[in-house]
Write a structure and sequence with these properties.
alpha+beta; 5-stranded mixed sheet; 4-stranded antiparallel sheet; 21 helices; 44 strands; 24% helix; 18% strand; globular
Length: 1157
Amino acid sequence: MKNPALTVVCLLTVFGMSNVQAQWLEWDVQTESRMELFTVATSDEEEKDLWPADLNKDGWTDVIVVRKEPFSAATEPPKSDLLLINQQGVLVDMTLELAPEFVTNPSFARDVYVVDVDGDSWDDVVIANTFDQQPMLYMNLGEDASGNWLGLADESATRFPTLVSDDPLICAVWSGDLTGNGAEDLYFVNYRVNSGGGTAKDFLLINDGTGHFTDEGAARMGDLRNSAFGTAGQIHDMDGDGDLDLIKNTTLYDVSPWNSRGVIVLFNDGTGNFNSWQNLVPSASPYMFEIVDFNGDGLLDLYVVDDGSDKLLTATSHTADVSLGFNTVNLGFSSSNGFGGNVHAADLDLDGDYDVVVSDVDVDIPPCNSGRRIAIYENVNGAFNDPYGSTNFDWVTNSYDVALLDVNNDGLIDILSGKCNGYDVIMSNNCDLVATSADYDLDGIPDACDVCPTNPSPDCTVEVDYPIISTDNSMARQWNEMLLESIRGDYARPTVHARNLWHCSMLMWDAWAAMEPSACPAFLGQDYAGFTAPFDGFIPSTDIATARDEAIAFGMFRLLQHRFANAPQASDLMTGYDVHMVTLGYDVNFTSTDYTSGDGRALGNYLASQLIAFGLQDGSNEQNDYTNISYTPLNPPLIVDVPGNETVLDLNRWQPLTLDLFIDQSGNSIPGETPDFLSPEWGQVTSWALTELDLISYTRDGFEYQVYHDPGDPALHDMNGLGTSDIYLDGHSMVALWSGMLDPTDGVMWDISPASIGNNDALPTTLETYATFYDATNGGAPSAGHSINPSSGLAYASNMVPRGDYTRVLAEFWADGPESETPPGHWFTILNYVSDHPLLVKKFQGEGAVLDDLEWDVKTYLTLGSAMHDCAITAWGVKGWYDSSRPITAIRGMAELGQSTDPAADNYHPGGLGLIPGSIETVEVGDNLAGTLGENVGKIKLWAWKGSAAINNVDSEFAGVGWVLAEAWEPYQRPSFVSPPFAGYVSGHSTFSRAAAEVLTAFTGDAYFPGGMGVFLAPANEFLVFEDGPSVDVELQWATYRDASDECSLSRIYGGIHPYFDDVPGRLMGIEIGLDAYDRSVSFFGDGTTNISCNEDPGTCPADLDNDGFIVIGDVLLLLSDFGCTSNCVGDVNGDGSVTVSDLLDGILANFGQACP
């Protein structure tokens, strides 16, 4: 037996996790996870200059990188520049998509500056080129009508003059309004390359106010344009006279008029002309400089990077247009051991002053990658300290240039470094400095410091970052647990993960069944919408148990590696997979798929490769990360933090939600503030047991939506209150009423034991009767309960708790919140709970021989996984086509209209909310919600959960219930989630849960949980996520699987996610889907003794018209409905092209009552 702890220690060593020496500020190199490059190599060896800016105005800082060969004479062609768009903390190369001319129009770029030159509020990009190439101006194109950023376009030819006053060998560019017309002018610093010196002429481009420029350097500067080797330039009001001055350097040679090297200030006379000057560091060899107020006295200081010793020039005085006074200190830091390069200032330690970062490489004297290095200096009261000295930390490398930016929006300045070979993303690991960081889980710990920012417990810890799975269970159970951990580490996508659960379940079943003569593989050799994985049978070269374990482990390892490669926690997941394989003693480098030798590992690899290939053509659009092909929302987004819903166009259609931060049900930040509809086209995906008989196709906007088990229209809102608008209103009114039942202090106590709740199998079947299933006034669905526990023979004990605790726990438990395995995965955790129960006897359908753990697991996983997949296809096919709204859209939208009860009132509207005394009322004069000036009088108010704004600390406070404006109503959800990003009708939870309940009931042969009751404990003051609670321990109790399913469905109404008319149709279709999927699954099991042929899909046979695995009355009815057909006939059993009496007699009745062979 291997020592798991020793294994983990060894793996930590293998993966390079080691202790790092303490630093003034802690820095963590995260390049691999923070940068994605496509147009350049990760080892990019070109010279680089960088500039950070929020180019697309999404609140995340992007970066422009300009590149050229790293020497002062051209021996190579120009290079493409780089656009890095910050996507939620990852710098993604979007050059080809958004700045394609960076590639088609390469440059000899030496500097870049970002500024809005045409006054349209969008930052443009100026590129300074050398080697006789003209500078470039890329204009920011802003957004289209849908809010999509359009990128950058080269407009240099129409906006820039051709520079002819000197050869453009430009090293630097800066901008500022030099003439006082409100437009940004541009200053380019030029240089000469000949060893004898010579005089270069700078360029001054004046903006006409529209972003068009003229070269006026000669007229406005005269000989003050001169330099010999100008490498830096900036524009600031150095003398405090209200106009902007030019600051430049001349580095190698002495030229007129200053006849010295140095940093030179050219004073603006107030009209944009320059006649007087001052050399601030004569006879020095300054390469770069940075100008800010380092000591906070209101005067601009300079940090000068010098070939000798870096200098700090602290301003002491200034006389306008005449002279500046400075105190100059040579710093002499040991870490400054070269020419010095670009220097940038930022407040790295958040103490209110500017620190500096200095780059250094050998630009002109190869090799570039020498002893020169990046350096970071601390500002201490206006003086500088070298806190790192010459110590070699992992971030200490050569660097052409850096961009200082907050990569992940945690309030700390990070560093992007352009190195001799590639890039480093150096993250500031100093969260304790951030006093005002966002705190989305409201636990009092800023997100920047919170090791688990979506877990509101302030004591939560993360001991390891990757999943560790016990080896005490069957191999299938181990990898199912690993799959569930992977789902928790990915985005919360119920459709995608239902598919993953199905594929993984098929893989593990086939790995088992391929070595069982009495069973058949469910995937290998079977036809799935034209895809067949070839299979010639398998004879293991080892014992069967070993080969099965190997096949399952290697297959799951490969499939999970593929499916979760782009998950937010991909790095940790991949480590977890590797660790588990090492723990099992397997060599992950074995990649053969040739299973003909009898190697179980190869069979697993082959299974994974075929399932990957199947998944890339099954209609899911996996190859494009499951993005939507056609769907576009009709409604503009609802900005949740803004009361009301004025912009909604149709209260019946789904509406996107815009949040400051969207954290999905798995606790992952979703890129962008307005998530897209998840999987509206999922009806196209290849299914397990859904058939053409279940299918109806609809077309919208040229796209065919495939809908299985079509439930028909939901209740629809009508502005005149017509049609089913009364049901629409009633359903959403019940959501509001139940929102008022979330307060544990309201004095209402409920018995939530199986004696009082459960045993309610009768479901209404029409839209008009759905409401009869519920108690709208008091909550819940009336049910008979269970008088006796069939396992113990005793009555169920009462379980009294505050209703407001039960409803809150219910909503949270079934919401599948942070670190969620999503609804289909949740039922796998329930299955595993059942499998572990000491009173469970593992018999198929409760009969026959006891199954060993592996056989039990692979069979239960196949039946449940296939049902969950078909549920996702069905429910999301319905969601995509009917595109129905969520309660937050409906309730806020109807509140905007008014009330529909009193026609005589001023706020009457037939499409508004109905008034219910004590629950839904009109705000009157003198009401606490009336507003200071009575601005809310006449609006609608709800007695409901008071929302996240009422909570300051989730660890000690709960919102409670009270009167709230309906226009600002929130579901009982986290403020960073609010509602799932997909349509409401039908409820996915109801569909998944009822199907799962049917599967578990059928497979175990018992409607009841083992021991007669399943339980889940929600500890007092610990369990709830976004507010404190529950106030007491709440133990959820279910007698049967269907009882658990019912409770899940009700939870979505308490949670404000669904009206009742989303719920019941989901349950009804879940029953059908679950049983159909189950019937097809068990047809592959065989009887355990009889060897069978697997050449054909045993789940289909000609007389099994409904594909349920059996020839029964349903097939007779289908044939009779098709009787007389002569073309494309469903009931053509004998294949003669028509449906006649022979199909009935010889095909169906002759085999009636039998399972398919």
